[in-house]
Amino acid sequence: MNFRFQIEVRSGRARAGHLSTPHGDVETPAFMPVGTQAVVKATTCRDLVELGAEIILANTYHLMLRPGAELVEKLGGLHGFTGWTRPFLTDSGGFQVFSLAGRRRVEEQGVRFKSHLDGSAQLLTPERSIDVQSRLGADLIMAFDECPPYTASRDEVAAATARTRRWAERCRDAHRRDDQWLLGIVQGGVDPELREQSARDLMALDFPGYAIGGLSVGEPKPERDRVLESLDPVLPEDRPRYLMGVGTPADVVEGVARGVDLFDCVLPTRNARNGQLFTSQGRLAIRNRRYREDPRPPDPGCACLTCRSVSRAYLRHLFVAGEITAAVLMTRHNLAFYLDTLRRVRETIRSGRFEELRREVTQGSAGPVRADPRDGDPSGT
Question: In this structure, are 283 and 259 located in the same domain?
Fold first, then answer.
């Protein structure tokens, strides 16, 4: 129902195209701002539209516990509940459940855990995950999977990968809505054989798209990149690929170079609340003393509202003073930086200059905070 994915241009393995959904089109490659509680922190729907976001992510686990999927469904699903009229993606809740290390128990039926809100006993199964996501009403929904940690043994990863396949089949069988695309999630840790087997098992279930999960969980970046390179020739060319939870702008660009179409990550919003800005000159820690009297915009190369309207000195003052507006302004900039990076990625794929942009981004524009002896005590006190 109103779904379509088309690759229009390639530059090496990088792909540019369109994903059509019942709530609008998404130009790919695309970055999805994370709205865990059905809101991208420190933003409004109007902000996101002005920034150029075309799709956002919401979290099944959190919304299942509060305010509850039934309430969201009653008030028009995520679109009616939030006022965001463009596409939504919901994750399955799997990653959040498996991050509750001491509060959950994995069974073949599903995962038993205690709510982080009130300690109540919960059981999340593939069927319940699909039911919750159906009620939430996102355009793209995810199969329930088991996400093993990077430190897991090969036997543990193999068992989780096999269970992910069985759960994916149960999710497919439970899925009823034709106005939602259900995507399978490839697991397998950093083992190339397990990854390929997981991909082929899921492809046999014929999902309309495939996510790559279980990365950005502690593995070195070269191992992550090897996983993506190994999956690129295996996953079907004509279906969208989603790299879950990754990463910095440079990580995203490296994912694009390996054939990925969709990305999400909490870094732009979380780092903003912690006083870190992604800029064309590297990452900037606004609390540092060197910015106390700095009249320059946060990023001279950025045209976002924050960079057009406030100085580093004022932004530092707001952050040190604990003003909420600091998070609002910095979140707006960081999201603008990510979304503009993806816009440039799409443009350079279409013009055949993607490798130039890749070199520019990976050589420092999203690198670590640059140390400076003038910074002194970074506490801002």
Answer: no
CA angle 228, 231, 236 (to 5 degrees): 130
Chain segment 68-108, per-residue pLDDT in tens: 999 999 999 999 999 999 999 999 998 888 888 778 999 99
pTM: 0.94
With 0-12 CB in 10 A as exposed, 13-18 as middle and 19+ as buried, what is 329?
buried
Q: Could you give the 3-state DSSP secondary structure of residue 377? A: coil
Q: Kindly state whether residues 180 and 94 are assigned to the same domain.
A: yes
**Dihedral of the CA atoms 128, 80, 38, 335 (nearest 10)?**
140
- Burial 247-283, CB ≥16 within 10 A → b, else e: bbbbbbbbbbbbbbbbbbbebbbebbbebbbbbbeeb
Contact 215, 227 (CB under 8 A): yes
| 18 and 163 in a common domain | yes
Tell whether 163 and 259 lie within a shared domain.
yes
* Domain that residue 180 falls in: 4-264
H-state helical runs in 57-121? 60-65, 69-74, 77-82, 94-98
Query: Catalytic positions, please?
Result: 91, 264
181 and 281 both lie in a single domain: no
Place of tokens 């106390």: 292
